[in-house]
Design brief:
The complex is a heterodimer of chains A (about 90) and B (about 375). Chain A contains three helices and three strands; from the N terminus they run βββααα. By secondary structure, chain A is of the alpha+beta class. A three-stranded antiparallel sheet of chain A has the order 1-2-3. With about 375 residues, chain B is an alpha/beta fold. In chain B, the strands form two sheets. A nine-stranded mixed sheet of chain B has the order 7-6-5-4-3-2-1-8-9. In chain B, strands 10-11 form a two-stranded antiparallel sheet. Classes of the chains: A alpha+beta (about 90), B alpha/beta (about 375). At the A-B interface, β1 and β2 of A face loops of B.
Chain lengths: ~90, ~375
Amino acid sequence: MSTQPAAADWRPALVPAAVLRHDPVRGADLLLLPERVVVLQGRGEVVVGLCDGTRTVRAIVEELTARFPGAPVADEVPAFLDGLRREGCLR
Amino acid sequence: MSVPASPWALLAELTHACPLHCPYCSNPVDLTRRSRELGTAHWAEVMRQAGELGVVHTHLSGGEPLLRPDLEQITTAAETAGIYTQLVTSGVGLDADRLAALADAGLRSVQLSVQAADPRANDRIAGRPSSFTAKEKAAALVRDAGLPLGLNVVLHRENLDAIDAVIDLGVVWDVDRIELANTQFYGWGLLNRTALLPTPGQLARARDTVARRRAGLPGRPELVWVVPDHFDGVAKPCMGGWGAVSLTVAPDGTVLPCPAAASLPDLDPPNVLDHPLDWIWHRSPAFNRYRGTDWMTEPCRSCDMRTQDFGGCRCQAYALTGDATHTDPACRLSPDHALVRSLVEHSEEGAPPKPWVHRRAGRRARRCPGPTG
């Protein structure tokens, strides 16, 4: 890989201020933070659900690859996690 | 008209009572008496219905929400409804026990008002001695409790030149976010416009300061600059559109598309005591009155910006032109834009400070001098 957006040994976790919840009214998964709502697209909720501070990015990618064979997990998930970190949702 | 999307946010004005008397308060000039406030069960029901309607954020605000002894129960009702809570407070009256009780009740975050970084200036603007000391203590308590903390600083002629100090204060208090909110001129802000309106030079310097400090900070605190709308010839997309994103419930249960809309005549705003929130949001005449673009007059009606700025602010259009369907005069395309231009042109650099009226029940109760020198 030419770029590695998120270090493979980072153990992402939601910041304490963030709440992950399903929104039945909109049929969406949301990350709630002060003054901010992040609407998770696709299977974002599944990815964020694995960010418990114990799993490494590498382990998350492996787990998702096993669950969703054929999905572009290795290409997309590290960048997705890095984006959430830049937005202040993960640490 | 299509079915309006669900609201995301609820501003809960739990009380209009407040230990502070800021001259730009966003509460209406006619403050609701404490005897007319909704009770605990009504507020709990508002939160339940708001959650079902799609609200995911609430600002537990006032006045000073800490004056409600049932704030904990209201917080729990919001949390139970799946709504993320933020306490919007002056900090006056917050102690460790109260904060612990609120955190136990499910409180998620705190926004603390600060009037100025200089304690004497803070207390003078707030109209309350020692309020700065209370805020400093409150900030430390929130930090110790591990809750996210933001500062809200309303900006005007008398504190715009001291923004650097406000940002320094936020760094020292270890806050997550500083909202630098230029005064909006309705209600008390309109009453005190002469004293509060900044000069174009002040705003330009403040904008430069924010840009410089943003570049120098390591990502925290986040600096949010809420732009003034009298100076750029651009109308702000007020509330993200009328009845589009959020709703306000006033202390007596009146429901409004924005906290300033109480000033509009003939709006006949609905009340949670009379109607379900779902009906109020989707069906009430008040929430549909300026929704979408059908109500617009020219030049908004045929303007490409109409779905982005929604014609600006209805309350400002009414306050300045006497007609809430007019284009917001803050917009350079408004035929009434000269009203705003002349205000700005008369806002002189170096002019002596002008007196303001502190917010109090029974308006114009006391005139207070501006700073000396």
